[in-house]
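Example (one chain per record):
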Amino acid sequence: MIDWRDVDWRARARELGAATAPGGAPVTYGLIALCCVVFLLSPLSGLAPVRGSADALLAAQAGYFERWGVIPGELLDGSAHAALTPLTALFVHGSWLHLLGNMLFLYVFGAMAEERMGHAEFAFFYVCCGYFALVVYAVAHSESDQTLVGASGAISAVLGAFLRLFPRTRVTSLFPFLFFLPLRFPAWIVLVFWFVLQWLAARGAGSGPGVAYLAHVAGFATGFLYARVRFRGGVRVKAPATATEGESKP
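Predicted structure:
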């Protein structure tokens, strides 16, 4: 029989509080929710009401990109609006496929990185690395007038940090050349392979419309270096991660 007088009620209360405390990755899930809401309210989703003809819809979409996206040719002009666009562009996506591909990668790799870094630091890391990646692309293509949007640079930084923090964590991946068979590999194999693809694509890409591979490379390298400098000690992995890799890249 338990002698209730001998129970340390304060310790029990702390244990209960720890067991029932909300876990997960609130910053990661909040970023996903914010990007989804922004897209749903934009003229790109097809759900926001835009009166007029198809030409009016195209004009609304073009104006939306120009207002919230990064235009490399204007970023270095020094205006306050242009300086803010690398921040606003992180939450703007050009299509459903663009949005879902980016959010999938953030969902898979963001939670563990956030748990290791802490919520506030992860939010700071995400925004700063994403901003820097877009600026690097803009500086490299300073003559371009093509609008740049998307969370790709920030999510690439998350991938780079994940590689440094959890290199041996096995992730489930789907590779097109392996007939999309779900195979499990250490994270370092999957992410290094992904980075090499981005690097090769960046070397052959121009400044026209398409995927901003250079922003991926810059974000990934920045995230890896940040995690390498900031987290020198050992890493405890509480649960294995499951990732989906394929044609869709952030």
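Caption: The radius of gyration is 21 Å.
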